[in-house]
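Exercise 7. Predict the structure of Asp23 family protein from Clostridium carboxidivorans P7.
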Amino acid sequence: MIGNITSENGYINYSEEIVANIVGVSTMECYGVVGMASRNAKDGLWKLINGENLSKGVKVRSKDNELFIELYIMVEYGTKISVIANNIIQKIKYNLENYTGLKVSSITVNVQGVRV
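Solution. The predicted structure, encoded as tokens:
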């Protein structure tokens, strides 16, 4: 379990896969993002992930119920990467904290390619 919340009614445990899916969907909603990137360990090449495996471009770590997120994306040619990255960070932080109640400590956006 990557995170949990305790209330008077019981416990809520979040798996790493659920958090990664929320991050992937939130990222794909941002303007300028072409897709998530997955590293092929065999060749060392980055490839575009199709829509059903968005969590594969996301790494999630947890320490003391604080999340540390690292994601790999591909962006659209002609867009300003710093603006895209800031939008992604704000959207992920907002969605995760509102949907799960977990605190997001840091988000690292790695741009692995530019697509025309």
